[in-house]
Amino acid sequence: MDAWKKTFAIIWSGQLFSTLSSAVVGYAVIFWLSIETGSAEILAFSYIAMFLPHLLLGPFTGVFIDRWDRKRIMITADIFIAACTAVMAALFAFGEVRIPYFYVLLALRSVGSAFHVPAMQASVPLLAPESQLLRVAGVNQVIHSTSTLAGPALAALLINALNMTYALMFDVVGAAVACVTLALVHIPRPPKKDGAPKPHVFREMKEGLREVYSRPGLLWLFVFVILATFFIFPLSALFPLMTTKHFAGGTTQMSFVEIAWGVGMLLGGVVLGAVKQKINKAVLINLTYLGMGTAFFASGLLPPAAFPVFLALTLMGGVAGAVYGGAFTVMVQTAVDPAALGRVFSIYGSIMLAPAMFGLLQTGFIADRIGILNVFLITGGALALLGAISFFVPAIRRVVKGGDVGLRRHGTEDAVRT
To answer: Which segments in the chain show pLDDT lower than 70?
Structure first.
């Protein structure tokens, strides 16, 4: 077995357990809030608490991710997230459950994720050959989809058979496993350039932005991903309420929906792991907008008795979501200088979440006023339209046709700009 494969095998074993335990916590909290409150606004504010710190800190965390040892960053972030979860578990154990406490602790967990997620994404190109990045992305999607599959079932089991304290402590164990496996591997640091200027946060932030806006094809892909996120994030907060209010389901039915999405992501990850590196990723990204849009729009047309059809459409959306995430991540990893990947991924996370936060703020109001089904119809139609338009943007069309879009490959200088 190649050395890079052994390294990934160790990392993936820990990340599988960590991702699964985090999924259990996420679903347990969402299930508990859905059942206890039944409020779209509370769910929306919970999602905002989970992502707002990531949005605000992203441009700054990327600078330090590219400066510091990425392995130590991930281990420290895992420990911090686990500590926040342990506090949440203690609140349940002592009967001090308050919704505002949830908001604060979810926000603190998001601070840890703001460091961990881009650090992991930026480390991948330093460990695997460029020709294998799409397959690595496929395996990562399989890990996340496996967690999506098992997470809701385990969350429902722990909530019903035991209590929320046990469900939350499961994440602490997962973080410990992840830290041990990360400690066993070596993650190299990007080589420093000769004559590099002294560290300066805002200058380094501008350099990260320049990595994106100096390449028109990549810049336009960012623009469309941000627009798509504006519609996808708010809708994600409504899946539990769609299940309970429109289909009259409970915890079990909510688990089925999440499992259906997980099966779709698993299938999408398998597809990514099997396809050749030369496949045009811009085409995949554009097609996923059409796929997710169609699935969401069709879900908005379903009668209350059509829950099995909703599961099938959710699975379809999961396939599209896995392909979308994997293809876009690999495009960035192969386009950007490894020394700047932490900044680019963290900046991307922030600018992606900005419109998503605005959309989430409107989720409760819109869902309560126009109805959840209409939200699915509007969101699905907008995503499908976005996918169709993306093929007619000149810079993206050159990507689709395989033309030079000014992407930088590892070990080379800037390519010809479009």
So the answer is: 1-2, 38, 40, 130-131, 134, 138, 141-142, 144-150, 152-153, 160-162, 190-217, 234, 237, 273-280, 335-343, 347, 349, 351-368, 396-418
pLDDT of residue 323: 81
Q: Is the Cα torsion angle 211, 417, 218, 187 positive or negative in sign?
A: negative
List Cα–Cα distances, 299 to 20, 290, 306, 381, in angstroms. Answer: 27, 14, 9, 11
| DSSP one-letter string for 369-416 | HH-HHHHHHHHHHHHHHHHHHHTTSHHHHHHHTT----PPPTT-----
Asked if residues 55 and 354 have their Cβ atoms less than 8 Å apart, the reply is yes
Does residue 414 belong to any structural domain of this protein?
no
Tell me whether residue 355 is in a domain.
yes
CA distance 127 to 237: 35
In a 3-state reduction of DSSP, which class is residue 136? Answer: helix
Question: Where residue 269 sits, what CATH number does that domain have?
Answer: 1.20.1250.20
Residue 408 included in any domain: no
Question: Residue 343's domain spans which residues?
Answer: 3-188+199-400
pLDDT value at position 22? 79
| Residue that has been written with the tokens 């892909």 in this structure | 221
CB 208 within 8 A of CB 338: no
Q: Distance of alpha carbon 113 from its chain centroid, rounded?
A: 11
Instruction: Round to whole Å and give the CA distance between 181 and 406.
Output: 37
Q: Return the closest-CA partner of residue 235 out of 136, 369, 98, 377.
A: 377
Question: Taking a C-beta distance cutoff of 8 angstroms, is the pair 113, 78 a contact?
Answer: no
The whole-chain average pLDDT of the chain stands at: 75
DSSP line for 28-67: HHHHHHHHHH--HHHHHHHHHHHHHHHHHHHHHHHHHHHH
Burial class (CB in 10 A: 0-12, 13-18, 19+), 36: exposed
- Domains in the chain, number: 1
Instruction: Write the DSSP symbol of residue 185.
Output: S
Look up residue 60 and give its two tokens: 């700054």
- Kindly state the tokens that stand for 169: 């402590």
Residue 206 domain-assigned (yes or no): yes
